[in-house]
Write a structure and sequence with these properties.
globular
Length: about 270
């Protein structure tokens, strides 16, 4: 309706109606309300050796959660689209080996049963306005990591979060992962202004994914540190043991030792803040 204030459109996550920060708990990790979380892992699960090896490396560097794609929406139908159910099985093996909770993207409500062992269900940028999926995720009792679409506004992201929360699930984490602009030098343009903006408008935790935002591995560390300084509640960074041979998004992945260096700098900035 015309004339309604924008803050009245999202009542469940609105800072005015819910002044206290929502803290999302995943195992021993917490996100929001002053709690910071590091999520790391490969874009796609490729093999047991790969995912278990990376999981051990990122845990050693201080990661709180392991990410890994099993279902991968790709621009081209000919690109590697993930190992699907087998990928989730391999993620579960890595979880048992390391104790790290796992994050993986779900594309359809039909696949919910396959995600029983997944601790955080990610809604990717392409599915941010898949309202059937959002409604279904609102009726489960697991944290949802909701990524901003490359062509979506902050208000539209909050309205997508509202779909989930209005069905009863308040465990929502917002993720800024870059938007599409006229810049041709990076994959996307990282909108870091969205972090303090979202935290002012909403009670939900906000994390940043500098890997998808830039698409270039050497840009990930400075953008990760800028996100921390800007008040982000966490980071999600892609890590691969052999980026040149990665089946998906190798150019934006850090090697384990590079990730460890970034994680140490993040801790230093957090200590100052």
């Amino acid at each position: 309706m015309y004339g309604i204030e924008i803050d009245e459109q999202y009542r469940c996550c609105n800072r005015i109606h819910n002044p206290e920060d929502i803290i999302v708990k995943i195992g021993s990790a917490e996100i929001g309300g002053g709690h910071f979380c590091m999520i790391a892992g490969p874009c796609s699960v490729e093999s047991e050796e790969q995912i278990v090896g990376i999981a051990n490396e990122v845990k050693k560097a201080g990661a709180d959660l392991l990410r890994g794609g099993a279902f991968k929406p790709r621009t081209s139908p000919y690109d590697f689209a993930g190992l699907k159910a087998e990928g989730l099985r391999l993620l579960s093996i890595a979880k048992k080996e390391t104790g790290l909770p796992i994050v993986s993207e779900i594309m359809s409500p039909r696949d919910l049963e396959l995600f029983e062992d997944v601790d955080v269900l990610q809604v990717g940028a392409r599915n941010m306005q898949n309202f059937e999926l959002l409604n279904e995720l609102g009726m489960i009792h697991k944290p949802i990591l909701l990524k901003r679409g490359p062509g979506n506004t902050v208000n539209e992201l909050l309205m997508s979060a509202e779909y989930i929360m209005s069905k009863g699930n308040r465990q929502v984490i917002l993720c800024e992962r870059g938007i599409r602009t006229f810049c041709e030098h990076t994959r996307n343009t990282l909108d870091l202004s969205a972090v303090p903006l979202l935290k002012g408008l909403s009670c939900l935790p906000v994390i940043v994914d500098p890997s998808h935002a830039t698409g270039i591995s050497r840009l990930v560390p400075p953008m990760a540190l800028a996100a921390v300084a800007g008040g982000a509640d966490g980071l999600m960074i892609e890590v691969h043991n052999d980026p040149e041979k990665a089946l998906c998004d190798g150019p934006q992945a850090l090697r384990p030792e590079e990730y460890a260096a970034v994680a140490e700098k993040v801790r230093q900035i957090r200590a100052v803040l």
